[in-house]
Amino acid sequence: MITMSKAYLVVRIKGQADCPYWATTTMTLLKLDKKYRATILPIKDNTLGMLRKVQHYVSWTEIDASLAQELIEKKARKGSYQKVTDADLKELGFANASELGTALSDGKATLSKLSPLKPWFALAPPVHGFKKSTKKLYGQKGILGANKELDTIVRRMI
User: What pLDDT, on a 0 to 100 scale, did the predictor assign at position 23?
Assistant: First the structure.
């Protein structure tokens, strides 16, 4: 039986230039202020509506616990951009990164509520580049919008 995930991994693909005010505002609410920022959001109706509104600037997919754990271990940061340690995770009430990754992917925890952690992950451009157009939606042979292949791209961006 396949378990449905209860959270989205959202990555901002396009930068701030020529981005209309309404899209900038929506992405600020989603904690995606810069290009190649990623965040994990629980699946709700209003979240999906916000994502569809800015689908020409971001890409999203349902996240699995292993990718969430990898993001936390390698890219999670706290104030003054320091790496997150196991001691920090214990203060938040999680035994280790895999437990927090599972909670995030199940929608039980949100990054914005975990106090010392930054509510986003800063990713690098993908190794060997994007294989498809960054100007088209996923259904039009691009990578924007709801993208089933985003997890492999994100693994190249970590």
Answer: 94
